[in-house]
User: What shape does this take?
Amino acid sequence: MNNITAMLSDPNMRWILLGCMLLGLSSGVIGSFSYLRKQSLVGDTLAHAALPGICIAFMLTGVKSIGVFLVGAGIAGMIATFGIGYLTRHSKLKQDAALGIILTTFFGLGIVLLTFIQHGDYGNQSGLDKFLFGQAAAMVGSDVVTMSLISILLVTICTLLFKQFKLISFDPGFARGIGYPVALLEQLLMLLMVIAVVAGIQAVGVVLISAMLIAPAVSARYWTNSLSAMIALSGLFGALSGALGTWISSSVSSMPTGPVTVLAATFFFIVSVLFGPKRGIVAKRFMSARVKKRFLLENELRAERMKGEAAG
Amino acid sequence: MSHAASNLYKEQGNKPPLSVSGLSAAYQKKPVLRNVSFEVKEGELIGVIGPNGAGKSTMIKAALGLIPTIGGEVLVYGKPCKEQRKLIGYVPQRESVDWDFPTNALDVVLMGTYGRLGWFGRPKAKDKALALECLEKVGMGDFADRQISQLSGGQQQRVFLARALAQNAKLYFMDEPFAGVDAATEKAIITLLQELKKQGKTVIVVHHDLATVQQYFDSVLLLNVELQAFGPTKDTFTREQLQRTYGGRLAFLDSSLTGEGAGIAVPKGESGHE
Assistant: This one.
């Protein structure tokens, strides 16, 4: 407990803590929709596709800031989305194969560009390779301010367009039927996902950021049957994972914050799978054990009664 | 109401609920719907009949503007479908959604009111009351709070119908509402269709079970990529027309279709060998 106060008294650590919690919150909220729309892996692909976008943005501007990277990653994400759509529509490929091809191609390109930047004469290149696995410690106040704005934007849009997003996640055909611009709303969700991914990349990295989109959402689903509660819980799990990740990595020397945050999210997932009410493994076991016990008891009583009747 | 507005209303009132001309649609290169034209009278129950792959669902979706078409015009009460969304109710196929979605029956029915709520509006108490009323109409009032994955197939279908009722439309499209439902649900759907008809609403139903066509529908639309026949059930639902539509893939168990008893027809080998 001592090191929590120590962590909070260090202004640098406070920024990192806040940043990680915000990234967990936003990816948890957006991740709920992508999970329900069965697009969890699209988030992973978008994250990997962001790498070449970030590299090219850096090469063109020579600036290292979330804003610039957002534009680069956003454009790369849109090209990747278009590529996935094109491949699934115009070739015999199913979505999993299309995602695999796009993900690896973009990531390969990203690594090539990254190596090129490191060996080229880009003076300010130090740290771009940190985007692979993230480096929360590199976050400064201005980054956290950007992330706060991003989180507020994401949560506000999801609140305002809650019923639209809910309907296109549950029944896009009906949504189209009542005149919702479904394609546009889907693009918007995709864009929000790109934004959440880019916001999280600095701390968690392109390779692992999809865990923050998937794990909190899946965990939350185990605790509730209401969409709004699920989204709130997912944001909470994400934020708690960020906090836990920062705390653990700050109290043990040379622990990477991003991966520890992902492991914290995984911890919440395991707890949910085991102990979630009704859906959780333990609850299900308990229920079937109870049914079995009652059945056996009734059988026993019946057998005894019959024995009694036979004796009497 | 101003004079102009009342004129406009009158003008609309005379227009048919649905008028389709030259509607065509294709998946990739294959046409699945070719040059379909028909006009529907107000207050009728219309069954859309045809073999698998005849484009029945496609026709509904194309008419609603849910899928791209390659030609044709669809007018709802005299205006393009896009401008008349509030007059149209839609019941998609039950299998088209994932019923493990985190929501309950009442919430799904509430979705029927979304079209009237505007961009940022939330359902209010009166919308919830309406949704509950719609659930009660399909005999599902006791299941309002039930998580939708815990409903049976027939109950899920009834929730979808209640949602369409909550849309409070004048023209309804239903995509195979009778597919794989229990007897209770089938009865509930029939009662509902009759009630909608009584209220002067027009309902277009994609239907699979030929045995019940004569009993349920005022008119039938026989479809096999092209429109085969369309008209009052007793004149149109004939052996010749069905033979033509199903291309001889039909075996009649009952000798007479035109007699008093309902004609029972069983499509031979639904999956088809062509």
